[in-house]
Predict the 3D structure of the following.
Amino acid sequence: MHSGGEDNTASNSPHLPSFKLLELTPMANSFLEKLHPGYAQTIELAGAPIVEEKSQFQSIKIFDTQRNGRVLVLDDIVQLTTRDECGYSEMLTHVPMLEHGQVREVMIVGGGDLAIAEEALKHSGVQSVFNVEIDERVVDLSRRHLSEVNAAAFSDKRLKIQIEDAFVFLADKPNSHRFDLIIADRPDPVGPAEVLFGDSFYERVSEALAPGGFAVFQNGVPFFQPEELTDTLKQMQRTFRYCGVYVAVVPSYIGGFMALTWVSQDAILGDPAKWAGLETAFAAARLKTDYYTPAIHRAAFALPAWMERLARA
């Protein structure tokens, strides 16, 4: 770091020390993420980057780090670290699957690292997982360099990788009322991903859901992105009968709680009436997890007061 800018010392306040504004500059052999205005994080690398390239759609980086394992970065935004991806992947997957109880067909929007697909495939009752990713290069590089979180998925015959625009895939007639669970592992609403945040996207999700089905989405970190949670829930209410939010903590996604939103036309996620059997369902599924437990499942629907206000705004 180095100091710069104008001297902000208050000359009439002798008790305040003199200081200058600080500018954040990258350290040698480090990655600087500036996702949220006014805040940034620096991640120290362990060795040279493994991947640094630009695909047809985005820049892709993969590197090892001092503290968070191997990291996948798209367009200079952290997507996954092998140390804490469990909080994200497991909560997007096992919460709706265990409450639903009979998920057979799963669709994943994005998720080219296949970490979420691996979690869904842990459920023996699942017949197929369609992982619909627009950028084939992300899938190829993840297969090669992120086997710690996806090797089981790539070796599972139930996995169907579709290199396609998920917005288009959802509208295919064979997919009408097909999926018991749709997981949208979408990036921020910019560039090619912008269409995944519009009303027409939610209408296509609704059409693709089977009776009793759920769709779940990541909705950013409300501490830094409050409008995204509020606006998205209002938008969902225009298309779905039921919607709501639960939370997970993924330290690499700076800002505390991550908001995970859900929708359905005919079922409620986070229904206490279904929670009595969670331990039994979890044990029967024989899931090996690092974050998810039935107790965490219940707790995830208890929101801080400030987040409750955002959800009701």
Remarks:
- The chain has two domains: 16-81, 85-312.
